[in-house]
Amino acid sequence: MKTDNNNEIFPIVDELGRVTGCATRGECHGGSRLLHPVVHLHVYDSKGRIYLQRRPKWKDIQPGKWDTAVGGHIDYGESVEEALRREAVEELNISGFDAEYLASYVFESDREREYINVFRTIVRPDEVVPSDELDGGRWWSAEEIAASGDMLTPNLRQELQRLRLI
Fold first, then answer.
1. pTM of the predicted protein model
2. Is 155 helix (H, G, I), strand (E, B) or coil?
């Protein structure tokens, strides 16, 4: 069975996203609440639908929930833009897209703190091919998102509302 690599090295950042050190995934996700950066890419089609990925059951955070189309940690020594492009290819096999920066903010849960860099793009539906890193995905209308209940990760629901993305 797949698992997350708890020895993966993440940068640790301050409240402005500046790197101040590094720690392992296990440390960052183990309740230390070390602030570590991630990227989120919201993927839309020309009809205004949003693509969401389903998190695999083996993930250490929010398994089985619907989440941002592309979301991933920034590797130590990697730029935000490099991480965004890498994650988009790794998760949905999309490249060559125009990414619009939306915001950066701190998300806190009882297990972790993330410095989230949020982007969006518009692609053709046939460009999206989910990888085996995910448990699939699908296009959602605003009405389906509104009726989704607790199927979405708390982070995604908060981000969609905060940034008025749906």
1. 0.94
2. helix
Q: Dmax over Cα atoms in the chain, in whole Å?
A: 42
DSSP structure string for 61-84: SSTT-EEESEEEEPPTT--HHHHH
| Residue 41, beta-bridge partner list | 70, 119
Separation in Å, CA 1 to CA 57, 64, 119, 131: 10, 15, 31, 16
pLDDT recorded at residue 2: 77
Please return the burial class of 99, using the count of CB atoms within 10 Å of its CB with bins 0-12, 13-18 and 19+: middle
How many other CB atoms are found less than 10 A from the CB of residue 163? 15
pLDDT in tens, 107-123: 998 888 999 999 999 99
> How many Cα atoms within 13 Å fall on the side-chain side of residue 76?
13
Class of domain 9-162 (CATH, top level) = alpha beta
Task: Kindly tell me if the per-residue pLDDT of 5 is higher than 90.
Answer: no
